[in-house]
UniProtKB/TrEMBL annotation:
Source taxon at top rank: Eukaryota
Taxonomic path: Eukaryota, Fungi, Dikarya, Ascomycota, Pezizomycotina
Species in which this protein is naturally found: Ampelomyces quisqualis (Powdery mildew agent)
Name of this protein: Transcription initiation factor TFIID subunit 2
Domain Transcription initiation factor TFIID subunit 2 Ig-like: 564-747
The family this protein is said to belong to: Belongs to the TAF2 family.
Function, as annotated: Functions as a component of the DNA-binding general transcription factor complex TFIID. Binding of TFIID to a promoter (with or without TATA element) is the initial step in pre-initiation complex (PIC) formation. TFIID plays a key role in the regulation of gene expression by RNA polymerase II through different activities such as transcription activator interaction, core promoter recognition and selectivity, TFIIA and TFIIB interaction, chromatin modification (histone acetylation by TAF1), facilitation of DNA opening and initiation of transcription.
Length: 1487
């Protein structure tokens, strides 16, 4: 196999001195919306570090540099555009995908040069004094004068770097553009040339020229007067579910007059009207701080300004005075109120960070803009954040509050760590991610409260423990961040929690200084210039933490930063009465080989991520064997006093003895009785009664007998109360202060201790752990009793109450008399219904906690299932009544999300958990059917309602699509997944389309070739980066389903097999073995390849996608990684070139000198002969014969009787060849047709058409197998004999086929189309008689777009003679003449002795098809239409040639340059003269 066509660039030699520093960069951009184009100019001030600097390497992608100047001199450059090279080239297929993958690899990982500028010879590196170079006077070293390099370029390919929204045809949104910044290098260089390596920082000056008004921006737009209006339909036009065909009204004049604005990183210096064009303005910004190129961003559009500084407290304004940072928000028209509602807290967040950490580094203003189609929630640039408009929500909606607030506060925190302070290397990126989120969480603790912060931390810890299995460590995770979105999410989660537990340990050790103090020192050191370019490393951060905490933290960083995994603790407590101690054994079982852990099978969500990690070299090994560090054990003793004990975990098995402090035991039975009596008497827990009475702090509701009876509450049985009396302590907590990311389970701790912990511990984490334990137990009346008390007690945090409602559904069982269902219904009626009535009250969502509970109770009821897998009819009717009688009148908040929750609940209660049919009685079945019909009607009603009155983010439609999918997969409704396709089409809102695609994938519709092709088409053609990114996630999930064998397949209802015998055959065992194999990564990859490698539709669709000019860099990486998983067997370094087979042409005589040509459906199977263009000589060389050695080749076997065709071409003298060597290259058409070009008058021969030496007949038969031609001097012209002779020698004549000279070989009919060398005299060609039409011989005229038919009389010749006679030359017999016009001689009658397989007439007409261009054909006029017969001998009859004779003759004496009529040559009969081009050496002299 040939070596690869592309090789990696050779690394530069360090001795060339190609090192320099970037002092400053200026950027000038001229942005045009219609058409989308950016004309840019950037100026870089470069300080050489060596005098030998001759090359300057710059990063540039998808740009088109037009001119580069260095110190006013034009410089040469080389440019390798990655965005042009990362797609499949035209003519290639999926077998060449690895070329694009290798190019990306060389650019990203190997640092291949992109734009290399060479210093002109006239530019010299001058040595200057230190002060001239901006250095101190006493600075040591050699300094050189800076160089100014100017690069002008054009950008019209917007796959990365910049995005235009609202300018596409049919897009109804306001036109705007924004930069697509990324935290990783490689994106900034798509917008302007720069040093985009993630390390080089410098000041920036940015100047943007842009349209003055929206009308100016759309002035050249095709729909400037007919684009749909966005303002007329309100700000939520994008939320429309179905496209509105009637909405084609253009922007009004008022809308066109809206001013366009530019918001950019840095400080605005001026915004002036362009002096040369009144329709354009120029805004200039400067950023004096050192920033990375990826932290320069801007937006352009008709944005409205919202001043968020107004939400700063009055006291803060007076205290901060002029040092207060202004906060400016910008949004598209109509969304100002949403911005105020969503981002009102940012001013206070900025003040908090400024006072707690360091001052703001980018002037006195912070800006943020909300744009459409952003592929992430927010991007961070210097003093400016670009956020997605999906974050905005009105004040009538509660649900997005927490997420939006966290994202926006984190965007502010990233100005300190992420933009001002950066990571030195990708291995240190976890510091930037974790520190910025830690800053945000500290402020959110003040904003939302401590309970919310602790509860959210507990949820995140549990999620990290669940996710951190076979994952890279935090430090190693940096190199995989761009592989999959799940990597970034995991790093954000784990890095935050690692810093949180480090903070808790430092605070506990020092008393006050934690990670917040470490971040303060980190920012202070960066401002002082301690870190080069403000880049911090892991070692720097470790050093700061050790100094702040006054302790060694090497082991901590080794476990949590460079190591992976989380500890799993098993605790075994026991009370030693003799020693009065609590003995506690703590074991770590995450790496214990004696403990069998059941690993979860590979899921469809994780397949693509794990496969990418494996492909990039990650091998999951054993997790960190033993975690060490201090752990807090908290024991609540019998008197209710908590005692904390710090245990040093230094091995995998630790045994400690904790002293017991209480000297006597309180009888809990007596205490409980006293508390109940005190509660009934109305005593309080203060004063003298406090010593004797201890109230339960929480959950002490329903103390009276009437309430207990009304709520059906239960109490502890006598045996449990007896055990409670004997316990020495109330409960034990492990890691009570959140110093570990772990899972801790306390064995042998009874349920009543967890109940005590739930009711008496104030910590929300302890309460949540208690409910988690109760959730692991089977449903019981007692559990439901304690949980309903928790649900109804408003003193609990709302997260605890909602979790209690969720767990309560497990106690709704038939054996518990549906106690859980009764409690949930009773609680809902008590909280949200009219007194004494099941009718719900009007909604009131002003209390967010109650609103969350109102949503949680129906969710819990929908989870209740009976023994048959069906929801109880009572629960179903309850949910249907809630959604039917929902009343939102008088509520200041929207109930869109509440209705969405009820729709989900209604669909969940219709599903059946168990497979198989359950026989129901007629009445029950009738009730079930009637209820199902009503429920589906209710779901459909809300779905249709959303199409007429759009809800916030189309929540009704999205919910209805998901509910319909659940019902289809549970066989409640018919399998009609094609209904989702109407919602997946372009024109609907992006979130609706994505939900439709998600449902299609989960329903297994990717097995349909049409759906698969449609999905990939949407993926490669949709203009929205957000939609493409999310659709790629859906596609990845679909691939994971196929790999793991989890594709949904609709099944017909099977017959009831209860109690019958099930026989497992070999097929069943094989399917089961395959399913088990797919639960591992290797087995899933093999299964995926087996299922998809022969899918032709997928392969062709991916080929088109990899040729797309819309997909971004990250999108291409995703598709290439997938190709590498499935189609790696197609990789090849060769390319199959497909040529179009030529067709025959037909010609029709229309009369009056007119002919019509058309292509036929028949293909030409034989190749044409080889000719070269004639050369006009200065003089004619005398004829000479050049002897050539010929190797004898045995003749081919005799053929059957052939039809002899002859056509004699008479040529005139041709000039001799020149001394120049023959050209080896021809045009593509010439190479395909093996024909030289023919023009009316022969011009001088170009280099590409010069003749080359002719090969022998054997070489001509080999056609293109010879790699290089054998060039020989042109031979002299020879005169061939009049009769054919034995092939003793052949005259070497130039032909265009570049093959070496080899001995001649007798030709066979199958090789007749190949190029043949000339012979002394033309010989007849035998054609098999079994062929009705002779094989076509290609015309010497190129570009066969026309066909003419020429009837030539033939005669039959003997087969033996034609088989033993060598084939004549492809060129006619050369003969000197005054004009270079070959003469067509008439055919001679065939001899009577010719043997034929079939009886035929002596004068039989044959049609020879000739490929000609129509413009080269002449019109002829016949004289009576009579055919001319020449009386010639058989020996003078030439070989059959493609004729140029048309069906008619030209009128008069008119000549065409190719064909002419000459009269009076032979008698009074006109003769047809055909002009043909030949090389000078190919024209023999006719005797």
């Amino acid at each position: 196999m040939a070596p690869p066509l592309e090789t990696a660039a050779v690394s530069d030699d360090a001795s060339t001195g190609d090192t320099f520093q970037l002092l400053k960069q200026q950027l000038e951009l001229d942005v045009s919306f219609c058409p989308r184009q950016v004309t840019g100019k950037t100026t870089l001030d470069i300080l050489p570090e060596k005098a030998q600097l001759r090359e300057i390497v710059i990063n540039a992608r998808q740009l088109k540099p037009t001119c580069i100047m260095i110190e006013g001199h034009t410089a040469t450059f080389t440019y390798s555009n990655l965005h042009q090279r990362m797609t499949l080239y035209p003519g290639t297929d999926l077998g060449q995908y690895h070329f694009a993958q290798d190019r990306i690899q060389r650019h990203v990982n190997e640092g291949e040069d992109e734009l290399v500028v060479y210093l002109p010879e006239s530019v010299h590196i001058r040595q200057v004094k230190p002060e001239e170079a901006g250095q101190p006077v006493d600075a040591q070293g050699t300094f050189y004068a800076p160089l100014k390099m100017e690069i002008e370029y054009v950008l019209d390919d917007f796959r990365d770097g910049l995005h235009f929204a609202g300018v596409q045809d049919g897009d109804s949104r306001f036109p705007h553009a924004y930069t697509r910044n990324s935290p990783f290098p490689g994106t900034a260089s798509c917008l302007f040339p720069c040093i985009d390596d993630g390390e080089t920082r410098c000041p920036f000056d940015v100047s943007v020229r842009y349209p003055r008004t929206m009308g100016d921006a759309l002035s050249k737009h095709s729909q400037a007067a007919g684009a749909p209006s966005a303002l007329a339909n309100g700000p939520h036009k994008a939320d429309s579910v179905m496209s509105d065909a009637d909405d084609d009204a253009g922007f009004t004049e008022e809308e066109k007059a809206m001013e366009m604005h530019v918001i950019c990183s840095g400080v605005l210096t001026d915004d002036i009207l362009d002096p040369t064009d009144s329709s354009r303005k120029t805004a200039s910004f400067t950023c004096e701080s050192l920033v990375l190129p990826q932290h320069i961003g801007f937006v352009i559009g008709p944005f409205e300004h919202v001043d968020l500084s107004d939400y700063r407290d009055l006291a803060d304004e007076e205290r901060l005075a002029e040092s207060a940072i202004k906060v400016h928000a910008f949004c598209l028209p109509g969304r100002e109120d949403e911005v105020r509602n969503s981002a009102m807290m940012l001013a206070r967040a900025l003040d908090n960070f400024t006072e707690r950490f360091q001052s703001y580094a980018f002037g006195n203003a912070y800006k943020l803009a909300f744009v459409d189609d952003l592929d992430c929630d927010a991007t961070h640039t210097a003093s400016f954040s670009i956020c997605s408009s999906r974050l905005l929500f009105p004040e009538t909606v509660w649900e997005p509050l927490e997420h939006t607030t966290r994202v926006l506060v984190h965007a502010v925190a990233s100005q300190w760590i992420g933009v001002d302070v950066i990571a030195r290397d990708i291995w240190d990126y976890w510091i930037v991610v974790g520190a910025s989120w830690f800053m945000a969480e500290l402020y959110l603790r003040e904003l939302f409260g401590r309970n919310d912060w602790r509860f959210r931390q507990k949820l995140m810890v549990d999620k990290v423990v669940q996710m951190d299995r076979k994952r890279p460590s935090l430090q190693r995770l940096g190199q995989y961040l761009q592989l999959d979105h799940a990597e970034q999410e995991f790093m954000e989660l784990k890095s935050l929690m690692v810093l949180s537990i480090l903070h808790n340990r430092l605070v506990k050790q020092s008393g006050k200084n934690g990670v917040d103090r470490c971040l303060y020192r980190l920012l202070f050191n960066a401002r002082q210039g301690k870190y080069e370019n403000g880049a911090v490393t892991t070692d720097d951060f470790l050093d700061i933490c050790e100094k702040v905490g006054h302790q060694k933290l090497d082991s901590f960083f080794s476990q949590w930063v460079t190591g992976s995994g989380c500890p799993n603790f098993e605790c075994f407590p026991s009370f030693n009465k003799k020693k009065q101690v609590v003995q506690l054994q703590i074991r770590q079982i995450q790496a214990d080989s004696t403990v069998t852990t059941i690993e979860n099978p590979l899921s469809a969500d994780d397949f693509m991520r794990e496969a990418k990690e494996s492909a990039h070299g990650f091998l999951p090994g054993n997790e960190y064997p033993t975690f060490v560090g201090p752990m807090t054990i908290r024991i609540h003793e019998a008197d209710g006093t908590p005692y904390e004990h710090i245990v040093d975990i230094n091995s995998s098995n630790v045994k400690v003895e904790i002293p017991y402090n209480t000297k006597y035991k309180r009888l809990k039975r007596n205490r409980l009785n006293k508390e109940r009596m005190a509660a009934a008497a109305g005593l309080d827990a203060s004063g003298e009664s406090q010593e004797d009475v201890t109230f339960y702090m929480l959950g002490d509701l329903f103390g009276t007998a009437q309430e207990q009876e009304a709520w059906r509450l239960s109490d502890w049985p006598a045996e449990d109360e007896a055990k409670m009396e004997q316990e020495a302590y109330e409960w034990i907590r492990v890691d009570a202060d959140f110093e570990w990311i772990c899972r801790a389970h306390i064995n042998d701790m009874p349920s009543y201790m967890y109940v005590s912990q739930l009711q008496q511990d104030k910590d929300v984490v302890a309460q949540y752990e208690s409910i988690q334990f109760l959730a692991s137990k089977e449903g019981h009346k007692l559990i439901s009793t304690f949980l309903v008390k928790t649900l109804m007690d408003s003193r609990y945090f709302h997260g605890i109450r909602t979790h209690a409602a969720d767990v309560m559904a497990q106690s709704a069982l038939k054996r518990t008399e549906w106690t859980g269902l009764f409690h949930l219904k009773k609680a809902f009626q008590e909280l949200f219904c009219l007194p004494g009535s099941p009718m719900t009250r009007s909604n009131d969502f002003s209390d967010r906690s109650l609103y969350l509970i109102q949503c949680a109770i129906p969710k819990a009821i929908a989870k209740i299932k009976g023994e048959d897998g069906r929801a109880p009819l009572e629960a179903k009717r309850f949910l249907l009544d809630i959604i039917r009688y929902n009343d939102n009148r008088g509520n200041e908040y929207s109930d869109d999300y509440y209705i969405s929750t009820l729709m989900h609940c209604l669909a969940d209660c219709l599903t059946i958990n168990k497979n198989g049919d359950i026989y129901l009685d007629a009445e029950t079945e009738r009730d079930e059917t009637e209820f199902t019909k009503k429920a589906i009607e209710e779901l459909t009603r809300h779905q249709r309602l959303d199409e007429w009155i759009p809800t916030y983010q189309n929540v009704y439609t999205i919910t209805a699509l998901d509910c319909a999918r659940k019902l289809i997969m549970n066989r409640v409704t018919p399998y009609k997944p094609s209904e989702y396709l109407q919602y997946a089409q372009l024109g609907n809102a992006d979130n609706v389309r994505l939900k439709a695609w998600d449902c299609l994938v989960r329903l297994g519709m990717l097995r349909k070739d049409a759906v698969l092709k449609f999905l990939i088409h949407e993926l490669r053609s949709d203009p929205s980066p957000y939609f493409r990114k999310q659709l790629l996630r859906v596609f990845s999930f679909a691939i994971g389903q196929i790999a793991t064998g989890d594709v949904y397949t609709p099944e017909k209802p099977s017959e009831n097999t209860l109690g019958s015998l099930v026989v497992e055959n070999e097929a069943y065992s094989s399917d089961r073995a395959s399913h088990l194999a797919r639960q591992t990564l290797m087995g899933a990859q093999r299964g995926l390849k087996t299922d998809l490698q022969n899918n032709r539709t997928l392969r062709l669709a991916l080929e088109e996608a990899l040729k797309s000019r819309t997909l971004s860099f990250s999108d291409m990486l995703e598709l290439l990684d997938f190709c590498n998983m499935v189609f790696d067997h197609l990789k090849r370094n060769t390319l199959v070139v497909t040529l179009r087979r030529p067709r025959y042409w037909k010609v029709y005589y229309l009369g009056q000198g007119k002919v019509r040509f058309c292509q036929s459906g028949q293909f030409r199977e034989a190749t044409s002969r080889h000719f070269v263009a004639p050369v006009q000589p200065a003089l004619v060389l005398p004829p000479q014969v050049a002897p050539v050695l010929v190797q004898e080749v045995p003749p081919p076997p005799p053929l059957a009787t052939k039809t002899k065709l002859s056509l004699k071409l008479k040529t005139v003298a041709s000039p001799p060849p020149s001394s120049a060597d023959g050209g080896q290259s021809k045009s593509r058409q010439q190479s395909i047709m093996f024909s030289p070009p023919i023009v009316n008058s022969p011009p001088p021969v170009p280099e590409s058409a010069k003749a080359s030496p002719a090969p022998t007949h054997f070489a001509a038969q080999q056609e293109f197998k010879a790699p290089t031609p054998h060039i020989s001097p042109p031979p002299p012209i020879v005169a061939p004999p009049s009769k054919p002779a034995a092939p003793a020698s052949v005259a070497q004549t130039p032909v265009p086929v570049p093959t070496p000279s080899v001995p001649a070989k007798v030709s066979t009919p199958s090789a007749a189309a190949a190029s043949a060398p000339p012979r002394p005299t033309p010989a007849p060609v035998s054609v098999p008689s079994g062929i009705s039409m002779p094989p076509a011989i290609h015309s010497p005229i190129p570009l066969p777009t026309s066909t003419t038919k020429l009837k030539i009389k033939t005669k039959l010749g003997p087969a033996a003679a034609s088989a033993s006679t060598p084939r004549p030359s492809a060129a006619p017999s050369p003969r000197p003449s005054d004009t270079s016009v070959p003469t067509i001689k008439g055919p001679t009658p065939a001899p009577a002795s010719a043997a034929t397989p079939k009886p035929s007439k002596q004068k039989k007409s044959k049609i020879v098809k000739l490929a000609l261009r129509p413009e080269l054909l002449s019109r002829f006029l016949g004289e009576g239409g009579k055919k001319r017969k020449l009386q010639v001998n058989d020996s003078e009859r030439p070989s059959k040639r493609q004729s140029l004779e048309p069906n008619g003759f030209n009128s008069g004496d008119r000549k065409s340059g190719l064909v002419s009529i000459e009269k009076g040559v032979i008698g009074d009969t006109a003769r047809l003269i055909v002009k043909m081009k030949f090389a000078k050496g190919r024209l023999p002299i006719e005797k």
